[in-house]
Amino acid sequence: MAVVEITKDNFQAEVLSSDKPVIVDFWASWCGPCKMLSPVVDQIAQENDNIKVCKVNVDDEQDIAVEYKVMSIPTLVVFKDGAEVNRSVGVKPKEEILAMI
């Protein structure tokens, strides 16, 4: 499954209303650790049809980042049934990310 780019306009439909668990990657183009994590997140999206993977550019979507209290990036937030159930900050190996689900 492809990674879904999230904006304030599609956050409700893609994340909160999803019938699958959702991993949301909060990132920015200038963030070195974000660039390290991005291929891992993309790989998870390609290999797992039972998980929706989304990305939020914190520079473009500051309101979403503020609402979910994202203070450092990269931050991964896992949502199930419209609620946050897990979170990690920093670069993590694929196994740790999948264990968050």
CATH topology: Glutaredoxin
Helical segment count: 4
Radius of gyration over C-alpha positions, nearest whole angstrom: 12 Å
> What is the CATH superfamily label?
Glutaredoxin
For the biggest β-sheet, the strand order reads 1-3-2-4-5
How much of the sequence lies in strands comes to: 25-35%
Nearest-integer average pLDDT: 97
Supply the CATH architecture. 3-Layer(aba) Sandwich
Structural class, from secondary structure content?
alpha/beta
The main pleated sheet reads as: 5 strands, mixed
Name the helicity range: 25-40%
The beta-strand count equals 5
Number of separate domains: 1
Regions with little confidence, pLDDT below 50 for 5+ residues: none
Write the layout of secondary structure elements.
Layout: E1 4-5, H1 11-16, E2 22-27, H2 32-47, E3 52-57, H3 62-67, E4 75-80, E5 83-89, H4 94-99
Parallel strand pairs: 1-3, 2-3
Antiparallel strand pairs: 2-4, 4-5
Description of the structure:
The structure is a single chain. Helix content is 34%, strand content 27%. The mean pLDDT is 97. The protein has helices spanning 11-16, 32-47, 62-67, 94-99, and strands spanning 4-5, 22-27, 52-57, 75-80, 83-89. The chain has one domain: Glutaredoxin, CATH 3.40.30.10. It has four helices and five strands. It is globular, with a radius of gyration of 12 Å. It is an alpha/beta fold.
Question: Which key terms come to mind for this protein?
Answer:
101 residues, five-stranded mixed beta sheet, globular, single chain, Glutaredoxin, 4 helices, alpha/beta
